[in-house]
Amino acid sequence: MSVHVVIGFGPAGAATARLLAQQGHAVRVVTRSGRPPEPGIEHLAWDAADSERLTEAARGAVAIHNCAGLPYHRWASDWPPLAASVCAAAEATGAVLVMLGNLYGYGPVDGPLTEELPLAATGPKGRLRAALWERARALHEQGRIRAVEVRPSDFFGPGVTDGGHLAARAMPRLLRGKPVATLGDPDAPHSWTYLPDVARALVEVAGDERGWGRAWHVPTQPALSVRQMVDRLAAEAGTGPVAVRGLSPALLGVASVFSPLIRELKEVRYQFDRPFVADASAYEATFAVRATPLDEQVKATVAWWRERQATTG
Predict the structure, then answer these.
(1) pLDDT per residue rounded down to tens, the chain (313 residues)
(2) In 3D, which of 187, 200, 112, 184 has the Cα closest to residue 150?
(3) I need a surface site. Which of 18, 50, 63, 99 has the fewest CB within 10 A?
(4) Among 223, 220, 217, which residue's Cα sits nearest to residue 114?
(5) What angle do CA 260, 98, 85 make, to 5 degrees?
(6) Which residues pair with 193 in a beta bridge?
């Protein structure tokens, strides 16, 4: 049995912590609020940006999984100190640093996204995500830490709620047979990464030194448009067909006045205005995890949302 530290208990952090516990590992979850303990999981109500406390939590751990999910409007202020603390804890303890990243750092590109592309984002969030990884990689190359980054595309599935484009803004409506609104072109191909596959990839690379020192894309099923995904989900729910409408730039502009989230999403709208396809062939040539079959993803997602609505009303 190994000890793992997981920072954050949002969808990805919770899925990763519970997968590790199911595999028999001891897990320490670090969040500001804390939670009651779960089987195999200890919840610590500590600030992960406090490097002394985080180092204390990571003593004896084989890996630190940074799954923190920060609100977009706090990225610029909160990510740098948190990332510095995580790197310091990894250096002090020798634990492998496993970073949950995303695809923002590439910026707009033509063609499929691969890990060999330069991190050439022009928007502030994309530049920040790129800088966080570049700093960790530099420390890795200096021999001060061991680090790896795992990059999913937009994830969906059981446990994904407010932050997912195929979650709270879509699932409750399509389960009622109501129209769904989306950013950009609803017919543009888009990669959707299934949340359990994110957790499986994070756990797999943590224990395989072949993965350290670089970034990897999470195995993801072939890209489908928002309309195609909604059609699949609504068909599983028995509520289809459901109309899908792209939000106009003018409407987004008005909505951004009242919604901080919509305001921040303007930077990454390009991901929905044209094909946005992630290539995970490098991961699949090296590791064992594969994307869950789409039918299983859709079935589990609809079942989870139905149960959620039944319990929350």
Answers:
(1) 799 999 999 999 999 999 999 999 999 999 999 999 999 999 999 999 999 999 999 999 999 999 999 988 899 999 999 999 999 999 999 999 999 999 999 999 999 999 999 999 999 999 999 999 999 999 999 999 999 999 999 999 999 998 789 999 899 999 999 999 998 899 999 999 999 999 999 999 999 999 999 999 999 999 999 999 999 999 999 998 999 998 766 666 666 666 666 667 778 889 999 999 999 999 999 999 999 999 999 999 999 999 999 887 6
(2) 200
(3) 50
(4) 217
(5) 65
(6) 155
